[in-house]
What does this fold into?
Amino acid sequence: MAKILGMVSTSHVPSIGNAIAKKAQYSDYWKPFFSGFEPIHEWLGKNKPDVVIVFYNDHGLNFFLDAMPTFAVGAADQYMNDDEGWGIPTLPPFKGDASISWEIINGLIEREFDVTTCQRMKVDHAFTLPLKLLWPESESCPVITVPICINTVQFPVPSAKRCFDLGRAVGEIISNLDSDLKFLILGTGGLSHQLDGERAGFINKKFDLEFLDSLVKNPKWATQYSIEELVEQVGTQGIELIMWLAARAALPGQVQQISSTYHVPISNTAGGIVLLENT
It folds into this structure.
């Protein structure tokens, strides 16, 4: 059967891409963030995943306000990146595997998740930058990818509980695949931040650290909050942590924390990185 190795979650702000492009990863400003990936690179070198399931949110490159699916799953053999206007270099196509995607899509439909199926899909910085952070030396991403996009842009936004249930369903589907492939789950976004309005620049370190702790000790902890309550706690854009919840829920067994990093700020965002190994 297929094996789920573990989960990585990381912030994905566009300025990370600019830091990479300008080779500023180890400047005083960026070093605390990029150094957090060193133990993850070592772990990836030992475990060598074949497939990465990416829970992320699109920022207008593939979906816009006139057509915003709650959950969308890529079902293509490659995914294209494009210029978003942030000055981030466009990356080569990301390899997909439609057969794996269709197993996940069909399994989700059977479990009563009404997902949008995308046989063509553009992927933005929320997808591309985390993968570049995981494999910085590779010109193109060396693993198969499956994008699973969750709406955090326009209300109604799925609840934290619904996203947790989505992740758990994806984990069940993968665990039952008749395959010897090794899977890594990747959740991107967050942590607390708000980019506009009266609370622009808002960061809630206390809540962020409680959330990071809960991923190991009580993964359903954040599901007690409504989306509106999460906005109060972590800011309008901070609700991206629902992707972390989905990723965590996909791990079927007990987990061991390999590494965790928290750094404030990266571009007015609380930068978090975590690696959990499935045991």
The longest helix spans residues 160-175.
